[in-house]
Amino acid sequence: MYVYQYMNASMGLIFRYDNTGHHKKSALPTFPHHKHVSHDDKVVPSDPVDLVGVLREIEAIVELP
């Protein structure tokens, strides 16, 4: 099992990937893998991810000097 969560300084969700089975009824084609997106906690299909992939996604969001 995995959970990768990225939040802003105000503790607002930016995204979270996980593979817990709590969205079985939503018929996600990638079940149990899925992604929670933004403050509205929308759930979308997702392929399995690893830490390197998550860090790359964060790096693309954050503007580095």
Can you put this structure into words, describing what you see?
With 65 residues, the chain is α+β, with helices and mostly antiparallel strands. It has one domain. It is globular, with a radius of gyration of 12 Å. The chain is 17% helix and 29% strand. The N and C termini lie far apart (34 Å). It has a 4-stranded antiparallel beta sheet, covered by helices on one side. A hairpin with a 4-residue loop joins β3 and β4. The model has no long low-confidence stretch (mean pLDDT 89). It has 1 helix and 4 strands, in the order ββββα. It has one helix spanning 51-61; strands at residues 3-7, 13-18, 34-37, 42-45. The relative contact order is 0.21.
Label this structure with key terms.
alpha+beta; four-stranded antiparallel sheet; 1 helix
Number of helices: 1
Biggest beta sheet attributes: 4 strands, antiparallel
SSE series? EEEEH
Low-confidence stretches: none
Entry summary:
With 65 residues, this protein is α+β, with helices and mostly antiparallel strands.
Sequence-ordered SSE layout with sheet pairings:
Elements: E1 3-7, E2 13-18, E3 34-37, E4 42-45, H1 51-61
Antiparallel strand pairs: 1-2, 2-3, 3-4
